[in-house]
Amino acid sequence: MFRSHRIRARICWACLSALVLSLTSAVALSVMPRPSAAETGPVILTTHDLPPYGSVQADGSFDGIAVRVVSCALHAIDRAFEIHVLPWKRAQLEVQNGYADGFFAASQNARRDAYATASAIIARQTWTWYLLKDQILSPKDPANRLSMLTSSFLGANMQTWLRRNGYRTTDFPPRDTNALLEMLLAGRVDAVLANNLVMESILDSRGVLSEIRSEVQQDKPLSVYFSNDFLQLNPDFLAEFDAAVPDCRDAEAASGDINS
Q1: Residue 204 CB: number of other CB atoms within 10 A?
Q2: pLDDT tens readout for residues 115-137
Q3: Which of 249, 243, 241, 246 has its CA nearest to residue 78?
Q4: Domain boundaries, the chain
Q5: Per-residue DSSP letter, 32
Q6: Is 235 helix (H, G, I), strand (E, B) or coil?
Q7: β-pair partners for 127
Q8: CA-CA distances (angstroms) from residue 130 to 11, 92, 198, 206, 210?
Q9: Residue 223 CB: number of other CB atoms within 10 A?
Q10: Beta bridge partners of 219
């Protein structure tokens, strides 16, 4: 059995409760950047509430396919850790500004590469377009990039990708995939770009699968981004973590919750 490690959650909106693997109270915001973890200190990771990768469970714990793979790998290399749950944009800024050591689950982009380094793949995702059933246009057709109003959610790599590839995007992207679906169902956008596992879980739980059609855009696997400052202080960490990830992903795949 793995030994117990604390996972703390910093609560940034009212719907999140304090959570963890072995739960402690929510942590207060720091007023000064903290030093990155030394080789024996806890690794501070940030994430967001994004089922099935990580979400608040009925018992108040925080769990998901990415959480389990990351936790497994850190246990395997005997590193203590904390996981703080924040809005996604804030989770990344905490690492960029030196308050945390890494964030997950994230796909690669140049902005993140400027201050952090991606780990081995911890989970799969497919960027997928979702449209109302009666929408006849395709956002994959370059001719429709300016005629269709599109969106992903705030802080998502997908939202950056939309803008960089010339799509017409909403001025105010929603905070998460649930709110993204609300925009689509209300007809405020023509198409939304989302993680397939996340959106399909929401569509199924809400019973609206029959109202939506989808188009696959591209595969974008997910990793942990560790800050370059943290890795400079812990030069062997990433190689050890990456070496542990495949076995942890295989174990998660064997459980039936993740595709390897």
Answers
A1: 10
A2: 999 999 999 999 999 999 999 99
A3: 241
A4: 6-123+221-254, 126-218
A5: S
A6: coil
A7: 195, 218
A8: 30, 26, 12, 15, 12
A9: 25
A10: 126
Mean pLDDT of the chain: 86
DSSP H/E element including 168: strand 168-169
Q: 126-218, what's its fold?
A: D-Maltodextrin-Binding Protein; domain 2 (3.40.190)
Structure tokens, 101: 């050591």
pTM: 0.74
Edge-to-edge, what's the strand order for the sheet holding 212-219?
168-169, 149-151, 191-195, 126-132, 212-219
Question: Selecting from 3.40.50.1000, 1.20.1080.10, 3.20.20.80, 3.40.190.10, what CATH number does the domain 6-123+221-254 have?
Answer: 3.40.190.10
| CA 151 vs CA 40, 53, 120, 145: distances in Å | 42, 21, 28, 12
Q: Locate tokens 């591209």: which residue?
A: 218
